[in-house]
Write a structure and sequence with these properties.
Layout: H1 5-17, H2 25-54, E1 58-62, H3 72-78, H4 82-91, H5 96-100, H6 112-126, E2 131-136, E3 144-148, E4 151-155, E5 168-169, E6 175-179, E7 182-188, E8 191-197, E9 200-212, E10 219-229, H7 240-250, H8 261-284, H9 293-296, E11 297-302, H10 309-320, H11 325-335, E12 336-339, E13 350-352, H12 353-359, H13 361-378, H14 385-391, E14 394-395, E15 398-400, H15 401-408, E16 412-414, H16 417-427, H17 429-434, E17 439-441, H18 448-454, H19 457-467, H20 470-473, H21 488-513, E18 522-527, H22 536-552, E19 561-566, H23 574-591, E20 600-605, H24 610-619, E21 622-625, H25 637-643, E22 647-650, H26 656-663, E23 669-670, H27 675-684, H28 689-693, H29 697-708, H30 719-727, H31 734-752, H32 755-767, H33 774-786
Parallel strand pairs: 1-2, 1-11, 2-10, 11-12, 12-16, 16-17, 18-19, 18-21, 19-20, 21-22, 22-23
Antiparallel strand pairs: 3-4, 5-9, 6-9, 7-8, 9-10, 13-15, 14-15
Helix pairs in contact: 1-4, 3-18, 6-33, 8-10, 10-11, 10-13, 12-13, 19-21, 21-24, 21-32, 22-23, 22-29, 22-31, 23-30
Bound molecules: ligand GL2.
Length: 796
């Protein structure tokens, strides 16, 4: 690796000279990527070597999603060479930023859960902890969102670039994974061994990606498995072309539509494929007697998608390694831990027993036995029928994956204090009563190196010039910024940084969406998946109410605001797609109205992604976190905004509560129903929206516009929204909270007009954000769950 700009330039130029198309940015990208890979690979080998020599306990993080974002810039940053590479390239006439934009973005995740996994990878390596990711190498990743006439359409995205990609194919580590077939009793070395007959095998090929920690030295591995055709014979009667097609589908895309059986089978195949390939490899490569596995290996399952790891590890230990049930169970139960990320009913995975049994006959037998033994254990407990149901892994022909995950794990955590509390006292109360020591909270965090240091170099420099650079390694040291919260010069600099970031975003919006926005206006952003409970609907209806008032009330001329939306709807989620169309419809009206556009602008950033998020968080003044209280498990966007100095406008939900705990109610704008109130309404079914609308003329008007024409653009475009608001009694309390939401906006706007006071709030938010670094989160997992210890840095 190079220690100076000059050495880098020499080497870079020498390599570029050997290429044909020297002028093209693509060639520059290719040369630079190759150089970074070389630097990385040396440290990677060394890290693996040292882990082996030191016999360190290894963590494997199993996740169906890893939303990594672009890798080149992050690696340059973590290798500590970003500065001189950028300067060196500039002197040679190249713009590093433009080069970074050429990298195809791996969108191997949907939203928060997948991005969390990526932040964790960064923190593990940066804390020099031996933690690796295990996932799937989807060919497509998440779809590309394209608006047509305001509607979301989906186009396939291909991110894999075999030539320039970061992954290394490890053909020699491939293995075959069986599906279908039937189990027959067999005997091996004098013991019974179930034998799988007539199975269909799929080859799992690992691709390894280096995960570079800060300061370079530790390079961990993200291993993504790709499904390929196996050389084993096909079961009788299976047509080869069908087998090839089905095999390609396994790692073709994230979350195939599971509304039909074929889609369900495919999802289950993905899940088992990931678990089996990863576990077989872990067991085979272990550095200890099998009975000691739990002391040498920790496995974290990211939500229930990899919960089949529990029966699969049992199968490996018993069928392949000859262990008895009790011993195997003891190992599984001390190796695997589980994170729950949601209490939304629709997201709690359930699989039909018959489907599972058909696809994975041996695994199903093991799940049945886990269930039978657990039922036997709880038999003596004085429980009513409902409570017993809540403890059943298999019930009425359905396998409950969350229950399986809890029973098979030694630790179960929620992702924010409120969420964990709801799990313990409501959603998983019976399980928590039975296993009182299993449940605990670990609040999420985000990689401050990506979301502050890399996304916002201007703010990072300002922070460093004020308090030194310790915060980069120890983000809690951002505390030191409090000293500057009343320093007018610092506050002005902070404001200048924000304006600079807003200008950059405004330029991007102009270039890509052809909308001109005013960087002096309040940038108010809601960027996340589109979902009923996240209430983008409340946001857009409120904007429409402001618009109505601007038109009808000559004295109402509010401070200019730019409302920014970003996010994708699941392709089959009709309601969310209607909300997207609605936002675009209101945007068209407002942005083209000569009077309104002096006060309001609306921008829906198309095809929201990690790299676009990196532009929006630093440029935002206001962080919209307005989910129905109790529904958002944590949220992590809220933390990224906070780190970049945006002020939270939110409900008492998820990690918002902990943000307010950090900054105080004076430095956030909180409104609306509490989780307790929401749950009370739900229990009593006592919320009736017409009671509210009746007394609020502005709400009546907006509902009429929505339901009767000017916004609906024809009945077909809002039928799912109508169904929710009218027929289903507004399950996410949009109409109940919207007036309080409007009041919170008013408070916020008057606060913004005092710019020094606003910057002071901003400083408090940045200063208190260190606790939301995923370094803190990972240290908690390591101390409380995985027990990884830390590699002394002199060994590295
Ligand atoms: C989620 C939660 O909805 C979100 O609140 C949380 O921050 C993340 C990470 O813990 O997990 N659960 C989930 O299934 N997705 C999330 O984003 N997709």
């Amino acid at each position: 690796m190079f220690s100076s700009k000059e050495r880098f330039k020499e080497n870079f130029v020498a390599r570029l000279e050997q290429r044909e198309d020297k002028e093209s940015l693509q060639t520059v990208y290719s040369v630079l990527t190759a150089m970074v890979k070389e630097w990385t690979y040396d440290d990677w080998e060394q890290t693996n070597q040292q882990y082996k020599e030191q016999k360190r306990k290894q963590l494997y993080y199993f996740s169906i999603e890893f939303l990594m974002g672009r890798i080149l810039g992050q690696n340059l940053m973590n290798l500590d060479v970003h500065g001189f590479v950028e300067e060196g390239l500039k002197e040679l006439g190249f713009d590093l930023h433009a080069i970074e934009e050429l990298e195809p973005e791996p969108g191997l995740g949907n939203g928060g859960l997948g991005r969390l996994a990526a932040c964790f990878m960064d923190s593990l390596a940066s804390l020099q902890l031996p933690g690796h990711g295990c996932g799937l190498r989807y060919k497509g990743g998440l779809f590309t969102q394209v608006f047509q006439d305001g509607f979301q359409t989906e186009q396939p995205t291909v991110w894999i670039d075999e030539k320039e990609g970061w992954g290394i194919r490890r053909e020699e580590l491939s293995l075959d994974i069986p599906f279908f077939g039937s189990i027959e009793p067999g005997i091996e070395s004098n013991r019974l061994k179930p034998v799988l007959k007539d199975a269909e095998w799929i080859k799992a090929v690992p691709y390894d990606y280096p995960i570079v920690g800060a300061a370079g030295k530790t390079v961990n591995t993200l291993r993504l498995w790709q499904a390929e055709v196996s050389s084993r014979p096909l079961p009788k009667g299976k047509p080869r072309t069908l087998y090839e097609q089905e095999t390609a589908e396994v790692t073709d895309r994230l979350y195939p539509d599971a509304s039909l059986d074929a889609g369900k089978i495919l999802r289950l195949k993905q899940q088992y494929f990931l678990c089996s390939a990863s576990l077989q490899t872990i067991v085979k490569n272990r550095d200890c007697p099998l009975s000691d596995l739990a002391r040498h290996v920790a496995i974290q399952i990211n939500d229930t998608h990899p919960a089949l790891a529990i029966p699969e590890l049992m199968r490996i230990l018993m069928d392949e390694e000859g262990m008895q049930w009790e011993e195997a169970w003891g190992i599984v139960n001390h190796t695997i831990s589980y994170t729950n990320h949601t209490i939304l009913e629709e997201a709690l995975e359930k699989w039909s027993s018959s489907l599972l049994e058909r696809l994975l006959p041996r695994i199903y037998m093991i799940i049945q036995e886990i269930d039978r033994r657990f039922k036997e254990k709880t038999q003596q407990e004085p429980l009513d029928e409902w409570q017993r149901k809540k403890l059943a892994i298999i019930e009425n022909g359905v396998v409950h994956m969350a229950t399986l995950a809890v029973v098979g794990s030694y630790k179960v955590n929620g992702v924010a204090k409120l969420h964990t509390e709801i799990l313990k006292v409501r959603e998983m109360k019976e399980l928590n009563d039975h296993f009182p020591h299993k449940f605990h909270n670990i609040t999420n965090g985000v990689a401050h190196r990506r979301w502050l240091l890399k996304a916002n170099p201007e703010l990072s420099s300002l922070i460093t010039s004020a308090v030194g650079d310790e915060w980069i390694r120890e983000p809690i040291k951002l505390h030191k910024l409090h000293r500057f919260s009343k320093d007018p010069a610092f506050l002005q600099d902070l404001q200048a940084v924000k304006i600079a970031k807003k200008r950059q975003l405004a330029d991007y919006i102009k270039t890509h969406q052809d909308i001109i926005v005013d960087p002096e206006s309040v940038f108010d952003a809601q960027i996340k998946r589109i979902h009923g409970y996240k209430r983008q609907l409340m946001n857009i209806l409120h904007i429409q109410m402001l618009y109505n008032r601007i038109l009808s009330d000559r004295s109402f001329r509010p401070y200019p605001r730019t409302f920014i939306f970003g996010g994708k709807a699941a392709p089959s989620y009709r309601y969310a797609k209607e909300v997207i169309k609605l936002i675009n419809t209101v945007a068209d009206q407002v942005n083209n109205d000569p009077l309104a556009k002096k006060h309001l602008h609306i921008v829906f950033i198309e095809d929201y992604s990690v790299s676009k998020a990196e532009k929006i968080f630093p440029a935002s003044d206001v962080s919209e976190q307005i989910s129905t209280a109790s529904k958002e498990a944590s949220g992590t966007g809220n933390m990224k905004f906070m780190m970049n100095g945006a002020i939270t406008l939110g409900t008492f939900d998820g990690a918002n509560l902990e943000i307010v705990e950090q900054v105080g109610e004076d430095n956030a704008f909180i409104f609306g129903l509490t989780a307790r109130q929401v749950m009370q309404f739900e229990k009593e079914q006592s919320y009736y929206p017409p009671d509210i609308i009746q007394h609020e003329p502005d709400l009546q008007l907006v509902m009429a516009q929505l339901l009767e024409g000017s916004l609906s653009d024809g009945e077909g475009n809002i039928s799912a929204i109508r169904n929710q608001l009218v027929d289903c009694n507004d399950p996410f309390f949009v109409l109940k909270d919207i007036q309080q939401y409007g009041k919170a906006h008013e408070r916020l706007l008057s606060a913004f007009e005092n710019s020094l006071a606003w910057q002071e709030m901003s400083v408090v938010n940045i200063a208190q954000s260190g606790i939301f670094s995923s370094d803190r989160t990972i240290q908690e997992y390591s101390d409380e769950v995985w027990q990884l210890g830390r590699v002394p840095s002199n060994l590295l």
